[in-house]
Records
---
Amino acid sequence: MALIRTSVALFILQICLAFGVSSSEDGAVTFDLDVSYIIASPLGVPQQVIAVNGMFPGPVINVTTNYDVTLNVHNRLNENLLMTWPGVHMRHTSWQDGVLGTNCPIQSGLNWTYNFQVKDQIGSFFYFPSLNLQRASGGFGAFIIMHRSVVNPPFRDPDGDVVVMIGDWYNRDHKALRADLDSGKVLGVPDGVLINGKGPYRYNPTLVPKGISYETINVDPGRTYRVHVHNVGISTCLNFRIQNHVLLLVETEGFYVTKRTFTSLDIHVGQSYTFLVTMDQNARSDYYIVASARFVNQSLWQRVTGVAILHYSKSKQKAAGPLPDPPNVAFDKSFVLNQALSIRQDVSANGARPNPQGSFHYGSIKVTDVYIIKTMPLVMINGKLRATLNGISFINPDTPIRLADKFRVKEAYKLDFPSRPQNRSLQMHTSIVNATYKGFVEIILVNNDTAVQSFHLDGYSFFVVGMAYGEWTPNSRSSYNKYDAIFRSTTQVFPGAWTAILVYLDNAGAWNLRAANLDRWYLGQETYMRIVNPEPDPRNKTEVPTPDNVLYCGALNYLQKPRKPSFTSTISSSNGGSKLFLLLLPVFSAFIAALL
Ligand SMILES: *[C@@H]1O[C@H](CO)[C@@H](O)[C@H](O)[C@H]1NC(C)=O
Ligand SMILES: *[C@@H]1O[C@H](CO)[C@@H](O)[C@H](O)[C@H]1NC(C)=O
Ligand SMILES: *[C@@H]1O[C@H](CO)[C@@H](O)[C@H](O)[C@H]1NC(C)=O
Ligand SMILES: *[C@@H]1O[C@H](CO)[C@@H](O)[C@H](O)[C@H]1NC(C)=O
Ligand SMILES: *[C@@H]1O[C@H](CO)[C@@H](O)[C@H](O)[C@H]1NC(C)=O
Ligand SMILES: *[C@@H]1O[C@H](CO)[C@@H](O)[C@H](O)[C@H]1NC(C)=O
Ligand SMILES: *[C@@H]1O[C@H](CO)[C@@H](O)[C@H](O)[C@H]1NC(C)=O
């Protein structure tokens, strides 16, 4: 018996090492994220893909409210890297946000350790590499924050968790896609949609070639699963549905919603949703899980469809027949608005704390500043293809914003981002918002382009109070939801329409406001909100000091202690033995759990 115990302990140690995870009871967790290239063929064409710990998608980071999270990111790519965790609020520490306005990049061959607390948060999020279109090659994984055991969610504990990462995909890697954009070409129709890094099940022999490996989600009949769905793609909104099954929406990006059932839901780029799904259908059959392109010409975009299989444990029959249809609303523009606005906060539910989510009565707070932020179709500026916000295409600073402030670097950026669209020639520079600390601001996001877009704000959640077609006017405010608007961090803005959000700027730092659509972001559709407490703060409460391990670059490069690369970039095959070991991990864990 003693022998077994020892070997079990050894096993656990090995698993921790292999997975790079260790966790202690005081609510701290440490992950090693080893970012490298692998060769994979998700759509049947071999290509370079970005893996995390050898896996594509990367491992799930699964933590609990208030945990201290330490993430040691190792850059084995042959270019700069930063990991970002959108929607996970870095309270008072934009130093950990992992975008170029807040952090110097981790150079090839080096590692850097992020440290932050997931303070007062629950919910489903995902992480990804934020630079240079890298997300188009992978590097993403789920980031789940579980509720504390003393705070009950507004539903019964599910029987299990399922993570589903959906996203459009090209057979060209991020460097090739980047080269297209740099030479003034748009990306065009994607080659497909991946579900958990895999291509479509062969539901149609004409559309799907032989030999593509697809995702299978194994379930037991009668059980209810919590299904976390993330659109990690480049620029395509996807309609998500499971054949014959009802999706009960319970949470989005950190907040519980009033429960609503859907047969399908549009998930925009960068958005995350959690559903409860009960396996209540004929258990002798498998079912399709579908993610198909929305708001595009269906006949031209037919191949941009992801299909996975929901496999009931005793099922003998393959999923069959045509795929379930997406909503047929081509001529009903109001359907999508109504669907979006129907997603509301469950104001009486406990959130991360044991008090109701709706206890912040945002509808009665006076707005201090109004910003109208408009996006236009792509343009050429100085011979380059660019995307803009209020006529400005953003150039990343060489020196991160708050670091430049601390060392009084001159002209690292300009605090001149206009609060209204400008009637002047287009510009290209590092223009950021001079926002007011503890201001309660209204931002009207206007989409003057012809494609749907999503916008994301780091460091905050915002209330999505209104959305409509046509011009926004002050009268539009009468349509705002002032009571139970959803509180989230990524919202869609339809073409020819606006979306209004309210946000309380109580988190000091420099926070990225951007298009979640990757090509748009790469081409400059972003800015930052610089939010600084003007009062002296000797106790470092409004903003923590720069971390000890801060990286220096740009004008502050001279402060950076030289670091020797500890490894070089490598490319390995995705079918290595280590992959097999990782695949078997759940089996080992179950085995150990049974023994202990
Ligand atoms: C790099 O990783 C090593 C361990 O793998 C760690 O000791 C070191 O602190 C890390 N460096 C940084 C800058 O995070
Ligand atoms: C996260 O961990 C909890 C246990 O703390 C587990 O119940 C849950 O299924 C895990 N979620 C995922 C997505 O792995
Ligand atoms: C979709 O594309 C096809 C093929 O180019 C074209 O014939 C059709 O008119 C388009 N449909 C719409 C609604 O634009
Ligand atoms: C924009 O500026 C041009 C001249 O620079 C002027 O002719 C035009 O009327 C202005 N448009 C608006 C909407 O102010
Ligand atoms: C930023 O705003 C503050 C007031 O909120 C003002 O005092 C300051 O001059 C502004 N800075 C710039 C560069 O406009
Ligand atoms: C863009 O703005 C112009 C001028 O306000 C307007 O005429 C046009 O309809 C808008 N287009 C879209 C797609 O919003
Ligand atoms: C606040 O941060 C500064 C460094 O920026 C440090 O010198 C000082 O000791 C900190 N004060 C407290 C109370 O932690």
---
Amino acid sequence: MFSSSTLLYPLSLFLSLSLLFLLSPHILLSSSRNNLLSTADELDDLSLFHRAALSSSNTRRLISLSHTPPPPPKIAFLFLTNSDLTFLPLWETFFQGHEHLYNAYIHADPSSTISPLLSSSSSINAKLIPSKKTARASPSLISAERRLIARAILDDPNNLYFALVSQHCVPLHSFPYIHNHLSNSHRSFVEILSDEPFLPNRYNARGFDALMPEIPYQDFRVGSQFFVLAKRHALIVIQERKLWRKFRLPCVDAESCYPEEHYFPTLLSLEDPQGCSPFTLTRVNWTGSVDGHPHTYGASEVSPQLIRMLRRSNSSLDYFFARKFSPESLQPLMEIADDVIFRD
Ligand SMILES: *[C@@H]1O[C@H](CO)[C@@H](O)[C@H](O)[C@H]1NC(C)=O
Ligand SMILES: *[C@@H]1O[C@H](CO)[C@@H](O)[C@H](O)[C@H]1NC(C)=O
């Protein structure tokens, strides 16, 4: 009895440990917040991206056969959110009267409280797209952004500009101002930085040299998450596979790893640096930032002077949007909307 149980115990321990060892990659992957994408999710996304690219090439063929002048371009507003849209009333005022020139899409984290009724009850008529889980410091935000782009391409062939915004963003100019400047630019606006002080840490955030050989250090770029893409770049982004295989790797250094701030700038600076303005159109205040979060403007800070100051940019264009604003700042922003924000 004694001898057999002493033998059995190490044996069962050995068996369970080896079982754990066999299964551990799956357990680790599925529990880590870094890797929220299952293979099924990836395949789902791939098929969506494929359909979007195909529909766009079919549309191009039809347009080249038709003799009527093309309709004016639409801007697709891509709302990426994990909470309710606090600033919806301000956006409704912004969009009012321009229904033929925009579409709005929402990717809301499945855990968020956003109401499925939003699309029907709000005048902006936003489409809530099928979403998957998202988290900071994980490639899940890249996937969500690509999903938004693909849905917008599929939904309306006249979506020619794709503007990413979050629930903390507010407009700084009127809709016609933004529409005119974008339709005359024919470019994308993606911040592309190569001289950021923490660039080496960010490059190695998935493990030392983990991005090699596809992305040598000298090709690596970073920039703001918030972009406006022209359609030709939106199509590149949803069809790209090589860089994605690297940028989808889980982060080992979460402090330096904001994959969505790496993937888009690196990809577009490799593919078409001349076709991109290396500036973002979304103003953010990093002075006194806490834990990777920028300064959040409170209600008492909102004033006409603040709006005018936030618009000022080093690029040839003013900033179009700004973040972040606290929920309480909605009221004072609404009060100055017509006289300041939407007066250009
Ligand atoms: C940026 O935020 C700081 C507080 O962190 C504030 O003092 C400063 O005025 C803000 N700058 C702008 C341009 O709003
Ligand atoms: C413009 O560039 C200067 C010099 O690099 C910088 O100090 C300033 O903060 C920039 N202004 C804005 C609005 O980004």
